[in-house]
Design goal:
With 568 residues, the chain is of the alpha+beta class. The protein is built from 18 helices and 20 strands. The strands form five sheets. A seven-stranded antiparallel beta sheet has the order 6-3-2-10-9-1-20, covered by helices on one side. Helix 18 links the parallel strand 16 and strand 17. 56% of the residues are buried. The structure holds 6-diazenyl-5-OXO-L-norleucine. The site of 6-diazenyl-5-OXO-L-norleucine (DON) has 14 residues, from loops.
C-alpha cells in the first residue's frame, strides 16, 4: 500500500511564515500602530499597580512604569521579588515595533561548583540549595531597573523609584495574604536577625493592618535610585552586600557583582492559528515549551475535541515538551541547544504522532534524558500597557517564598534561592520537582534554567500580555491562557479559568480542584493518567488584554491572589 506523505507540518510552517510576514509587513508599511484608549496595569498588589499609574501620570511610559511596579513589589510583596533577585522583562515599543527580552536572571557565583549541594555520599544535602546563603545567585534586579530607565524610559530612575521608596519608608498596612506568607516562612525568617526584626513583631507574625516599615530597604532602594547599577554592583554598597552574604555563609565576591551583566536577547517568536506569539527564550524554558506545545496542538482540531480528549492532548503535549526541557535546555552561553529542532513543526509532528488519543503515554516510555552524562507560589508577574501602545510583560523573582528568607545585614534585601533552579544532580528533582541534567548543571557564571514565561500573543483581533509566577506550572498556565484568549476569553476570563498541568516527571497530572470535572477525571484516569489534586491554587496571573475592534482594554489580576488590575 502506498502511503501519502504527511503534508501537515509543511502547511503549518507555511501558515506560520505567512502570519509572521503579514504582521511584519503591516509594521514595515508604516501601518500606524494602534493606540489603546486607556492604559492598563495588572500586578500582584494594588499599591504596585498604583505606583505604576503614578509614574504614567508623571509623564512616564510603560517602561518607567515597569520600574515603578517592580520596585514597589519588592516592598509590598517581599515574598516574590526584589533587589536580591532577578527576572525577565519582555518589552514592546510601539513607535517602531521593537521587541526585546531583557534577561536580568541571576548567575551562579564564581566559587560555585557543580556538586556544591551534594554531600560526600553524593546525595543532596537537605535545604542547602533552598534555605542557605549558598542558594543565592548574583542578583539582576538593580541592573534591570537601571537599564529599563536609561534605555527605554522617559523619566529618571530616581523618579520612577520614588513610589517604592515612599512605601518602604512610610510603610503599608499588612494584608491577609502577607500574614499567611510570613506565617508560612517564619522558621526561615527567624534565622537571620535582620529578617526577624523586619518581618516579625517582637518575634511574632504581625497582624493584618500592622504598618510594615522597611527603613533599610528604603535606603537601599534610594541608593540604587541615585547611583544606578554602578552603585549596586561596585563600591561601598557592593562591599556591604559581599560582607553580609559571607556572614550568612554565602560565597559571593566583589568580582561576582562587578562582572554581573544583564543581557538583551531576541525573544522567541512563533505563530498559532493566526496569532503571533512573542515569548521568553533560554535561559527560560518557558517559551520553548509554549511554542513546542502549540506546534504539537496545531495538528489537533481542539475546538472539535470533547473536553476530556482536549485536556488529554494538552497534557500529553506538556509531558513531551517538559521531557525535552530536562534534557536540552540551559543557559545559552554554556550549552548548545537544538532550538531549531525543538521549534520545528516537523519535530512537533513526530511528537504528535506518538500521542494516543485513548491512552496516556507513561513518561518512562519517552526517551530517557540523562543519557550521556559523563561524569508555590512566590515570584511575581505584572503586565503594563500605556496609551501609546508600549507593553511590558515582566516576571521577576527571588525563587521560593521570600527566597532563602535571609536578609543581607543592614540592607533590608532578601536573598534569592535561585541556585535551586539548577539541576543540582542529574535526575534529582528540585523544589518544583523538575528534573534536569548536564545542560542545566551548575557552573560559575552560568544562568540557571527558568520556567518564567512573560509572553505577548497578538492577532488582528488584539493583544494579550501574559504571565504568572508558579514555578514549573508557569508554561502550562501560559499555554492554557493563550488557548483561552484565542477562544475569545479576555484577561478576566483567562485569570479565572481553572488550571491543569503536566511536567513529564513526576508522571502525573496536577489539577486544581475546579480544573477537572468528576467525569473528566475518571475519563482521564481510564486513559492511564495519574491525577494529583493540587491542594493549593496554581499561579497568580496578571494579564492585560486589548481588543482592537471594540477598543476594550482589560487588566485582570488572578482571584487566587491579592492583586489588582487597573485601567485608566
Ligand atoms: O525561574 C523559575 O522558573 C522559578 N525560580 C520561578 C519560581 C516561581 O515562580 C515560584 N512560584 N511559585
Amino acid at each position: 500500500m502506498r502511503t501519502l506523505p504527511d503534508l501537515r507540518p509543511g502547511v503549518t510552517l507555511l501558515r506560520r511564515v505567512v502570519t509572521l510576514l503579514v504582521l511584519t509587513a503591516q509594521i514595515a508599511l508604516g501601518a500606524e500602530p494602534p493606540k489603546p484608549p486607556l492604559a492598563a496595569i495588572a500586578s500582584a498588589y494594588p499599591q504596585a499597580s498604583e505606583a505604576g499609574f503614578e509614574i504614567l501620570a508623571a509623564g512616564g511610559n510603560a517602561f518607567d512604569a515597569a520600574v515603578a511596579v517592580s520596585a514597589a513589589l519588592s516592598v509590598v510583596e517581599p515574598r516574590g521579588s526584589g533587589l536580591g533577585g532577578g527576572g525577565f522583562y519582555l518589552l514592546h515599543r510601539a513607535s517602531d515595533g521593537h521587541e526585546v527580552f531583557v534577561d536580568a536572571r541571576e548567575v551562579a557565583p564564581a566559587a560555585a561548583t557543580r556538586d556544591m549541594f551534594l554531600g560526600a555520599d553524593r546525595k543532596p544535602i537537605a535545604g542547602l540549595s533552598t534555605d542557605s546563603a549558598l542558594a543565592a545567585g548574583i542578583p539582576g534586579e538593580a541592573a534591570a531597573f537601571a537599564h529599563l530607565a536609561a534605555k527605554y524610559g522617559r523619566l529618571t530612575l530616581e523618579r520612577s523609584m520614588q513610589p517604592a521608596i515612599k512605601l518602604a519608608r512610610e510603610g503599608f498596612a499588612i494584608y491577609p495574604r502577607l500574614v499567611e506568607d510570613i506565617t508560612r516562612k517564619k522558621p526561615a525568617l527567624e534565622r537571620s536577625p535582620d529578617a526577624r526584626r523586619i518581618f516579625l513583631n517582637k518575634g511574632e507574625v504581625p497582624p493584618v493592618g500592622y504598618i510594615l516599615k522597611q527603613h533599610e530597604l528604603a535606603r537601599s532602594l534610594n541608593f540604587v535610585a541615585e547611583k544606578g547599577a554602578e552603585g549596586f554592583y561596585h563600591g561601598a554598597f557592593a562591599d556591604k552586600l559581599v560582607a553580609g552574604v559571607r556572614k550568612l555563609g554565602g560565597i559571593w565576591s566583589h568580582e561576582d557583582l562587578a562582572n554581573y551583566r544583564l543581557i538583551e536577547r531576541e525573544p522567541l517568536r512563533g505563530a498559532y492559528h493566526g496569532a503571533r506569539i512573542v515569548t521568553a527564550p533560554p535561559p527560560s524554558s518557558g517559551g520553548v515549551a509554549l511554542l513546542n506545545a502549540l506546534n504539537i496542538l496545531d495538528g489537533f482540531d481542539l475546538a472539535r475535541l470533547d473536553s476530556v480528549t482536549r485536556k488529554h492532548v494538552i497534557l500529553e503535549s506538556l509531558r513531551r515538551v517538559h521531557r525535552d526541557r530536562a534534557e536540552y535546555l540551559g543557559d545559552p552561553a554554556f550549552v548548545k541547544m537544538p532550538l531549531d529542532r525543538l521549534l520545528s513543526p516537523y519535530y512537533a509532528a513526530g511528537q504528535r504522532a506518538s500521542i494516543r488519543l485513548d491512552k496516556a503515554t507513561p513518561s518512562d516510555l519517552l526517551p530517557g534524558y540523562i543519557g550521556d552524562v559523563s561524569s508555590g507560589v512566590s515570584t511575581t508577574h505584572f503586565a503594563v500597557l500605556d496609551r501609546e501602545g508600549n507593553r511590558v510583560a515582566a516576571t521577576i523573582t527571588l525563587n521560593a517564598w521570600f527566597g532563602t528568607g535571609l536578609v543581607i545585614p543592614g540592607t533590608g534585601i532578601l536573598l534569592n534561592n535561585q541556585m535551586d533552579d539548577f539541576a543540582i544532580k542529574p535526575g534529582e528533582p528540585n523544589m518544583y520537582q523538575l528534573v534536569g541534567a548536564e545542560a542545566n548543571s551548575i557552573a560559575p557564571g552560568k544562568r540557571m534554567l527558568s520556567s518564567m514565561t512573560p509572553t505577548f500573543v497578538e492577532s488582528d483581533k488584539g493583544v494579550a500580555i501574559l504571565g504568572s509566577p508558579g514555578g514549573s506550572f508557569i508554561p502550562s498556565m501560559i499555554l492554557l491562557g493563550t488557548l483561552n484568549w484565542l477562544d475569545g476569553a479576555d484577561a478576566t476570563g483567562i485569570v479565572t479559568a481553572p488550571r491543569i498541568h503536566h511536567q513529564y516527571q513526576p508522571d502525573m497530572v496536577f489539577a486544581e480542584r475546579a480544573g477537572l470535572s468528576a467525569d473528566e477525571r475518571s475519563a482521564l484516569e481510564e486513559r492511564g493518567h495519574k491525577i494529583r489534586d493540587w491542594p493549593a491554587t496554581i499561579g497568580n496571573m496578571q494579564i492585560v488584554t486589548w481588543d482592537y475592534a471594540s477598543q476594550t482594554v482589560v487588566a485582570a489580576s488572578d482571584p487566587r491572589g491579592a492583586g489588582k488590575g487597573l485601567v485608566r
